[in-house]
## 1
Amino acid sequence: MGCTNCSTGKDGQPKGCKNNGTCGTDSCNKLTVFDWLSNMTLPNGSTPFNWVEVRFKNGRKVYYKNTENLTLSIGDIVATQAASGHDIGIVTLSGELVKVQMKRKKISETPEEIFKIYRKASQKDIDIWVEAREKEEPMKVKARQFAIDLRLKMKISDIEFQGDASKATFYYTADERVDFRELIKLFAREFRTRIEMKQVGLRQEAARLGGIGSCGRELCCSTWLTDFRSVNTSAARYQQLSLNPLKLAGQCGKLKCCLNYELDAYLDALKAFPKTEVKLRTAKGNAVCQKTDIFKGHMWYAYEGEWMNWHKLTTTQANEIIAINAKNEKVASLEEYAIDLVEDTKVDFENVVGQDSLTRFDTPKNQRRKNNNRRKNNNNRKNKNNRKSRPQNNNAK
């Protein structure tokens, strides 16, 4: 996603709006929401929903009540109420979809403490906000150095200033409880502002910072994923993935959230498969499952003691043999049910180029050799004829 200011400039170089996720057009932001009800009118007699979704730095969203009945649209910069002072954010959603989002996130429409929107941000508010945002990166470098000097087992991942520059929130991750009272004193003395420390999980840290995943796309947690469901190693087992922590872990160090995306489809497909620990009893011996192919619905069995010879069966054939074994009966052998392992692997390719041949520039090596030999023979004949036509110097004398 990119706005017009982020488009490509001269010589293929990206221009970039340099707003670091606070673009006014709201098209290159994180967790952008498309309001598909914006062009639809409300029924007669119904009042519009007076709550607004406001986004702050790195996808942090809060819902405010529009008590002043301001005319707001997506992308407007507004001054919102905070615990002390005011904050500056960007409107990302308004109207009936806000009600749906609040219901999905279980946010009450009548809370005890209601935060409201004061006004649309003035130029002075925006200047103070931008100036505060420019201080965050150098502050983060100093804050990390202070934590290292105090030997605290914590990592300061991000800093977020309040819109009026009266408070700075330090986001950190830690594996255990950290006593940062001395650290707060150093921060207050160095940065001359109110300090708030907020601990976040590893997944929330990756969502705030963003990045590129192993798939080559932006992280799901920083673009569209809002709820973090638990991911177990059983999800990888059901999908027959190798249990390699380096491949299964994301940038947060936890198991990738995308392991859950196709898990339901795999579980539905596995309902037709018999359990792999069930042995098939035949007159030739017991057979043990060695491998399964979920996509094709095939299973490979091998006799006990003959582990090198695999016999491929379909799920229906395996279930049929198990049903016969349940009646205390045995089948003759797996060879009667097994599918021939030799399959036709020839692939028919289509000519997608058109009338041109894909090998039109290729010349057979044999033809090249023949042409080279002909040239050599012709050159040798010419040399012999030239030698015969020359006069002999000895006879001339």
## 2
Amino acid sequence: MQAVATWRKGHEILLEDGRTHSVVVDLSPDEGGTSAGTTPLELTVLALAGSLASTFVALARKRHLDFSGLTLVLEGDPPSPAGVIGGVHGTLRLRSRADRGDVDTTLRAALELCPVGRLFREAKVAVNVIPVVSPTARSS
């Protein structure tokens, strides 16, 4: 795994993963940037969302928990004066006919196994996600 950060101008930084993917990070205008990209702190919450969602999908498939749609929305608490996120909370919206208990169990396991979530736990940043299950239409 590789990460290359290349300064472009102002506070704008190009991040590349050593494969074929890249993302630009920048600060907001009130922090001296031009908002050419997400901030590095926002990127950490985006990474958490991607990691948690992909972990949930992998576990749901292993557990034969069928679903037809998934959206995870996370909100990071405003950073402290030291620039640290106080916590993250959110909602996992799932379209499924699965039992709510099975969804809850799978989400708890995903929160425990999610690699980026582990980094948040070790940094003592609480992550709380509530599942909201909407039933899918039954086939006729």
## 3
Amino acid sequence: MSRLRSFTLDLNPPSDFGPLKSQYEDTVKKILTESNRMAKRAGISSKDEMHIVLLTEETISVLPHLTEYGSGKFWIDVTDDLFELHISVTPKSASGAKARKVSEPAKRTIMGRVLGVFDRAASKKGESDDNTSWSLGSYIEKLKQQDQGSALEEWDEMEHSILANIADDVVVKRESNSVDLIISKKVKPNSFSF
């Protein structure tokens, strides 16, 4: 089994002020660069590379929300035919700043659901709880078991979601002191180039 791991990048809350704002912009550039580098290094198809870029951009779009809870880490794991984008955030203590709430229209999107689970997990302050774990794969299985009419809105969300259409799974889970977001994509394995 072949395994590649990217550099780990530190994530800090973005700021509207001078050097901190440019530091955040530098982090975004580093994430995109690292994602491209890992896709090339894994030797995946150009279609899979494009999908990885889209998933990376989706990941970057939620960083301001996730890092409101505290600092975190970003890295990529590639194992044989699986490409994973990881974000791990360590929530601040109870006295820390509150995260932005997901707006009502955003809650009705797949990413909004992901952020809602992340919010619940991050607010648990050190508790590990299965109720704060969520998987896109499990969510789809539950939808398949429902009456099509009652789940029509949810299926519509899925149809319009980059995550649902490209990622093979999205997982949010509480791990002791951190909350983790993992976006997985199966890729066509070629030979790894080290």
## 4
Amino acid sequence: MAKDLGDQSLLSNKFGTISNKEVIFLSKKGLFGSKTVEEIPIHQIAAVRFYKQKSFVVAILGALGILTAFVIATLFSGSLILKIIGLVVLALGIWIAYIGIGGIPTVLITTGEGKTTQSNGWPNDRNEAKAFALVLREQLK
């Protein structure tokens, strides 16, 4: 006779908490959007998917920011304030290009009713998103 082990937490990170009975999923509308907490029983989850949303347009915008910084530095090489502005634009361009090229890690959960909910993270949250999806996928088997 098998014992009921109760509710055991298997994983907890920025994307939520997985236990052997339910998932507490921190779904977000976007990177800067507010979080909503959804409690989903394991038996209602049909699928889980991890992927990285890469954006060619965002990478191009970042490259344009980097190019703009070099144009500012070249055309206005004598002004200290414009050099500082050029450095700020350069840093912003590099950051935006990193987001576009690195991709935004996303975890998507589909329930048996067909309802989907997702949570996005920053590019450095890729390992946590991947771990969340893998542990949840193992619980679904």
